[in-house]
Write a structure and sequence with these properties.
The complex is a heterodimer.
Chain A lengths: L19 H24 L4 H5 L9 H32 L1 H16 L6 H11 L4 H29 L3 H9 L4 H36 E4 L2 E4 L3 H10 L3 H30 L16 H8 L3 H18 L6 H4 L3 E3 L4 H30 L2 H37 L2 H16 L6 H11 L3 H4 L2 H5 L2 H14 L2 H9 L4 H35 L1 E4 L2 E4 L3 H11 L2 H33 L4
Helix pairs in contact in A: 3-4, 3-6, 3-8, 3-10, 4-6, 4-14, 5-6, 6-8, 8-9, 8-10, 9-10, 10-11, 15-20, 15-22, 15-24, 16-20, 20-22, 22-23, 22-24, 23-24
Chain B lengths: L7 E11 L8 E11 L3 E5 L6 H9 L6 E6 L10 E4 L11 H11 L4 H14 L15 H13 L5 E5 L7 H16 L7 E6 L2 H7 L2 E6 L4 E7 L11 H16 L25 H12 L6 E3 H8 L3 H13 L3 E4 L2 E4 L1 H8 L2 H15 L1 H12 L4 E3 H9 L4 H18 L3 E3 L4 E3 L5
Parallel strand pairs in B: 3-7, 3-8, 5-6, 6-7
Antiparallel strand pairs in B: 1-2, 1-4, 8-9, 10-12, 11-12, 13-15, 14-15
Classes of the chains: A mainly alpha, B alpha/beta.
Chain lengths: 581, 433
């Protein structure tokens, strides 16, 4: 992708000499290049090599494992970008594609794709027999499935909200679709996309453990990486190895946050459409370094050249004014075609459903469906109770932080870090504690579900509280409202729209997390909480494809139903009544 | 001097447009014919809803009219015409520098990079933006931003420059400077364009800039009148001839707005099939007081009123028309004259005003009376707003119905004719205690 604003350097800057920022920049890029080359080299080894050099809990190997895991995460992120570009652009440009892609994304977003690992591994290994590449692809694909959907949604929504006047400028000048994408649509979508990519990266960590230690039939493949390290450490009940892995993750997250996401966020800030300079623009030392590097234009020249070549390939277009000279009595034949398309799509969806039910019917009975539904209700109860509990904890804290700007800027990065941290690595500790206290796993495994997702509530409440206008707060103070009035009349209505967003994300994430949180092991100790999550997890372990499918279908129905019946109406309420504008 | 024999740049005939496809919503434009000729600045003057922006966008190729003919006439050498547009909102790409923004149109035409830069720099220079080449739009003031918009439109060397209320988002002083600069460049022939078509709702601006002014009527948009401005440039706002023309245009623009005259012995009434404008009680009362007070003493020329109050016609006309509909004011040859009831209203205290307004609503606004009657008839004295919204939507678009209901709600609440509960979306006779 050509990155327009990034290349905005005046010709004058080119003349200046090489400075230390250039040296630093060069070093960083060279290190990144070496790391990628080493990773690719590693990943293309024959599969047999893994048996000779299995994953071992050797601290000296940990940096290599961390590197490989990080590369997998970024490879998945890159794949998500490509998918996002194709799917979201298609959906935004073609109504027919939209009709298929958007509902599909909506479902995929709420479906625990983790359950499908068994199927995808076999497929990818068939593509690259005997090589590690196949297994690597399967792992990357698993991570991809946790990253792509929200990014695609973000781009799709941005593409549909491109400001009308800018769109008219592009059309008026007759910008080709490609140029329009590069000059207008992608830049406009950039801030949202970057934010969602960050969220996706955090989500991806959750799947690392599950995706690196893969069982195919009766053989288990352990790809070198932090995930496999953790799996082994848990199996061997090696607490210090778990701690090491946690430490390594913290370091990796900190590094890519500083080296990748901070600079990208600082850079993407220029794509915000507000015409005023932002109050506190995001800062990044690396981005500042980049900007000071005088050789940067030289580094980005190949990128630009590619962009220009692509633009040269497209057919010449003449500006609109000359093209058109019409006498029109326009009729639209498109409507009937669209209706036909809708019918076709609905029929295919119906056929797929019938096929799936038929497949389930061959192996399962109606009793299984009822069982899955019952487990679903149990998990639903857990999700609801936990979201309420988490709200009671985080809403007051979030409000306290949000109303104090100094604290907000300090806490926000910490909260982001915590959200990026894969909560599932802490599960073993919970197992140890539950076993030690002889606690009931049905109750005490539940909190693990919100361990990773509660942060969304905190983020959003902080954002909401800091958006409450200070004049309203001053007015409340002047009239000497009571504590309860202050909450009921000012704070709760003020943060409500933000809270709904946070709670929606947290609840969706918790459903997904239930698959790993309701069935946890520590060495040979296995704890289970009854629920849909453990139902799917058990079926996956047993290789019972039908039950996996049934469980996933039931879970999707639950998630979609909650979104439609609970969160959509709440959104509408907050739009109508509680918008501060 | 421009004559009607000058070569046309673009001609439109029988152009009609309505949104909403085949069935078609209410027409936006109806049977519009116009020609823009070489060497002239043409003004399209109209209120919001007159379709003037749609007309401009049809010429720009951004909107495809439902029917009609639009023809660009090649110039004397047979070269094809081209257009470009300046936007009210400036429409600058925030992530591109001034230079990159200006280069955008050339880039689309695949002009080589070298030439692109030269031409863009020349346009930036011409329009007075030197030194800002590498600034981002958010670093610029509104006036500078619109200069970028102008440079971007001029750099592609269009035959026809289309301007969509280019100065209305700017403060008065900045707008004046920009207008003058543009007229100077035009007068010196430095713009390199054949003609300009400018959409505005500011009558003075139109008289100040244009050689010809086309007045568009509203709902649907039609060309209602044409004025030729022969005053030499630069024009002086205080020149009596200038004032005379401005007042003529005001008179012409309010003329069509007269409520259909009632038959003797009946009350003229605002029916259910016509939308109410979004006009608040405070604006109504404020304007009545203004007309009643010195220097107008009950009779105010609209042009002077707009000037004194610094109101654009889009703000002033809806208030005046509403006052006229409620019979607080009569319109007489471009003057607003207070009626007896209007003069009384100006003198009354709060409670008397409410009573006066209540009587007015009951006699002149069918919808208000209708709601009251329904509430009186029902034993519960309650009625869902949905019901009235549906009735309105039989006659108008949902947007207009929503505005109409909002307006009648505010008026009814003020007059204490009925109460409204937003949560329940319910009209009632309850007096909130």
């Amino acid at each position: 992708m050509q990155t327009p604003g990034f290349l905005s350097f005046s010709p004058r800057r080119l003349k200046v000499r090489f400075g230390w920022p250039d040296a630093a920049l060069f070093a960083i890029l060279a290190a990144a290049g070496v790391a990628i080359a080493a990773g690719v080299n590693d990943a293309t080894e024959p599969l047999a090599q893994l048996r000779l050099e299995p994953v071992v809990l050797d601290a000296w190997q940990l940096p290599r494992y961390a590197l490989l895991t990080t590369l997998r995460l970024f490879a998945a992120l890159a794949a998500s970008f490509v998918f996002t570009l194709v799917a979201a652009t298609a959906a935004a440009k073609s109504r027919r594609a939209e009709l298929v892609i958007i509902p599909a994304l909506d479902i995929l977003q709420s479906v625990p794709v983790l359950g499908f690992m068994t199927f995808t591994v076999t497929a990818f290994m068939g593509l690259f027999p005997g090589s590690r590449v196949g297994v690597e692809c399967a792992a990357i694909f698993a991570i991809f499935t946790s990253q792509a959907w929200n990014m695609a949604f973000s781009l799709y929504q941005s593409l549909r909200q491109v400001p009308a006047d800018l769109d008219e400028v592009a059309r008026g000048f007759g910008l080709s679709p490609l140029r329009k994408l590069i000059r207008l649509e992608l830049p406009f979508a950039a801030p949202g996309l970057v934010w969602n990519a960050m969220m996706s990266m955090s989500g991806g960590w959750f799947f690392v453990v599950a995706s690196e230690a893969i069982s195919v039939g009766h053989t288990q493949i352990m790809l070198p990486g932090i995930g496999s390290w953790l799996a082994i450490a848990i199996e061997q009940r090696n607490l210090s190895a778990v701690a090491l892995a946690v430490g390594a993750m913290a370091v990796v997250i900190l590094l890519y946050d500083q080296l990748v996401f901070r600079p990208v966020i600082a850079w993407a800030d220029r794509f915000r459409v507000e015409q005023t300079a932002s109050v506190a623009p995001p800062k990044s030392w690396l981005f500042d370094l980049f900007r000071r590097a005088r050789l940067l234009p030289a580094f980005t020249a190949p990128l630009r050249a590619v962009g220009q070549m692509v633009c040269l390939l497209e057919p010449a277009r003449r500006p609109i004014a000359q093209q058109r000279q019409f006498t029109s009595k326009a009729q639209k034949p498109a409507a009937r075609g669209m209706r036909l398309w809708t019918v076709m799509v609905s029929l295919s969806a119906l056929a797929a459903t019938v096929y799936a039910i038929d497949f389930l019917h061959q192996t399962l009975s109606l009793g299984d469906a009822w069982a899955a539904l019952r487990f679903g209700l149990i998990t639903l109860l857990r999700v609801i109770v936990l979201i309420i509990l988490a709200s009671f904890v985080w809403v007051p804290i979030g409000v306290w932080v949000g109303l104090r700007p100094r604290w907000t800027s300090r806490i926000q990065p910490v909260a982001q870090f915590l959200a990026a941290f894969p909560a599932n690595v802490l599960f073993p500790i919970a197992v140890v504690a539950i076993v030690h206290f002889h606690a009931d796993p049905d109750v005490w495994l539940s909190p693990l579900m919100v361990l990773g997702t509660q942060w969304y509530i905190l983020f959003n409440v902080i954002a909401g509280a800091s958006a409450i206008p200070s004049d309203l707060r001053e007015a409340a103070q002047m009239f000497g409202v009571t504590r309860w009035q202050w909450w009921r009349r000012l704070i709760l209505p003020g943060i409500f729209p933000y809270y709904v967003t946070g709670a929606l994300t947290a609840s969706g994430g918790s459903w997904n997390a239930s698959i790993v949180a309701e069935a946890v092991s520590w060495g040979s100790t296995r704890l289970r909480a009854q629920g849909l999550g453990s139902y799917i997890a058990d079926a996956t372990t047993a290789g019972d494809g039908a039950r996996v499918l049934l469980g996933i279908m039931v879970m999707s129905v639950f998630v979609i139903a909650i979104n439609r019946l609970l969160f959509r109406p709440l959104y509408r309420l907050s739009e109508r009544r509680l918008r501060l504008s | 001097m421009i004559t009607h024999t000058a070569r046309p740049v673009v001609t439109l005939e029988h152009v009609s447009h309505s949104y909403g496809g085949e069935q078609g919503g209410p027409p936006i434009l109806e049977d519009v014919a116009l020609a823009v000729r070489e060497g002239e600045i043409v003004g399209l003057l109209g209120r919001s809803g007159s379709g003037k922006s749609t007309l401009l966008r049809s010429i720009a190729g951004l909107v495809r009219p439902s029917s009609g003919e639009l023809r660009f006439v090649p110039d004397a050498e047979g070269a094809p015409r081209s257009v470009s547009m300046v936007f009210q909102s400036f429409a600058l790409f925030p992530w591109l520098t001034v230079l990159q923004n200006v280069e955008l149109g050339l880039e689309a035409q695949r002009v080589p990079a070298e030439e692109r830069r030269t031409r863009a720099l020349a346009a930036i220079d011409l329009i007075g933006l030197d030194g800002f080449e590498n600034a981002f739009p958010k670093e610029l003031s509104g006036g500078m931003r619109q200069r970028v918009g102008l440079a971007r439109a001029l750099v592609v060397e269009p035959s026809l420059l289309l301007m969509d209320e280019p100065f209305s988002a700017l403060d008065v002083l900045t707008a004046e400077t920009l207008r003058t600069d543009l007229l100077d460049l035009w007068g010196e022939g430095k713009l390199g364009i054949a003609s300009v078509l400018i959409v505005t709702h500011n009558i003075e601006e139109a008289v100040l800039m244009c050689d010809r002014i086309l007045v568009l009527s509203s709902n649907p948009g039609r060309i209602a009148a044409e004025f030729t401005v022969d005053l030499p440039q630069p024009r002086d706002r205080l020149d009596p001839e200038f004032r005379e023309l401005v007042e003529q245009i005001y008179a012409r623009m309010t003329q069509r707005a007269v409520v259909p005259v009632a038959l003797p012995g009946t009350q003229p009434e605002h029916g259910l099939d016509r939308p109410l404008p979004d006009v608040s009680i405070n604006s109504l009362a404020g304007l009545i007081e203004e007309i009643e007070a010195a220097p107008f003493e009950g009779r105010a020329p609209l042009a002077t009123l707009a000037d004194t109050l610094q109101l654009e016609i889009d703000d002033l006309f809806p208030i005046v028309e509403t006052l006229q509909m409620l019979q607080f004011v009569d319109i007489d040859d471009g003057d607003a004259v207070l009626t007896k009831r209007g003069a009384a209203f100006a003198q009354e205290d709060v409670d008397q005003r409410k009573a006066n307004f209540r009587r007015t609503l009951e006699t002149h606004v069918r919808l208000a009376r209708h709601i009251r009657v329904v509430l009186d008839e029902r034993p519960s004295h309650q009625a869902p707003a949905r019901r009235f919204r549906d009735e309105l939507e039989d006659h108008m678009s949902p947007d207009f119905a929503a505005t109409t209901l909002r307006t009648v709600t505010e008026w009814g609440r003020y007059a204490e004719l009925f109460a409204f509960d937003d949560d329940g979306d319910l009209f009632s006779l309850d007096d909130p205690a």
